[in-house]
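Figure S7 source data.
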Amino acid sequence: MSTYYTSVQAGANNFTAKPVRLGDNLITILRQQGFTEKDREKVLASHAGLRSLFLTLDTRYLVRKDGNEVELRMFDSQTSDAFKIQKKNGIVTAAAYQPNFKVEMTRIQGKIHGSILGSVLSKINSNWVATRFTDAYAFDIKSSKDVRRGANYWFFVAKQYEMGQFVKYGEVTQTSLEINGQAVHKKFIRHKDGGVFFNDQDLLENRPFFSPVNYIKIASTFQPNRLHPITRRLQPHLGVDFELPVGEPVQAARSGVVVRYGNNHAAGNYIVLMHSNGIETAYNHLHKIDRKIRSGLKVMAGEKIAEVGCTGYCTRAHLHFAVKMKGRMVNPMNYIKPYPRSMQAMLEARVAQN
Ligand SMILES: [Zn+2]
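Tokens for the predicted zinc ion complex:
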């Protein structure tokens, strides 16, 4: 069986799906659809989610036109937020709504030539999908030599339909990739508002830290020798960036003690924890630091200490997570488990059942 379906209905409505194009944003789209400057201000003032609406080139929006009426359905590409925007007889309304997505699973397969990201993009033109596939193996690939030229891969990804039209991709749910000649399978396991890519082998690895977040989507990796693209100066990235929406919980990666916390112009709101053997973990760009946090406070592994944000040097909400051992910054991906503390018991039970 290569695909399975829930039925995708051709809706009895007049919505047309339009692809998001380079340079499009909510304002340009509203302008194209005949919304005046005043109308556009009204739309932006209606809901905070509309001011931060994030559209990417692999998503679509819906338009329905009927006499004196224009209706738009917009979908945030990072979150499940969706919005209805209407102009009827000159009156503008805009509000969040709950879409009734129909989901169709589709299977993609191919061989790796060049980068994993590039190979997947050549089969499915979506940065989101290609990135999620590489996220599935973020803990497994230690060197680019581990994935040989011509290595086979496949995965399932959800296609989401609204009013009978494809609007955006959902989660990658099952994956396979040949690593050192062996097919390594992963399954996306949902948990709370997140979830992680997992296989039974992941429980056996002896890693000292848990993931500090419930959803592992990597926006930037540990790169001690990164060069600035223009100045060619060394601009190392000494942690890993996990992309999550503002407000998502940040958890202590291991039990420890708060040694520093506060705010500075680069890190934004930050917390540093000290663990056994003098190992430190740092959490930057936080939206809110929990009120209980003070120097010397003991925290347990998995305990919530803050919320994800975008304070300090930051363009999109994320957690910058760093690990310091024996005075040196090390790659966190070599030391954290591919799941948060709160998922451990569930994953152990799952493996025990197999
Ligand atoms: Zn970072």
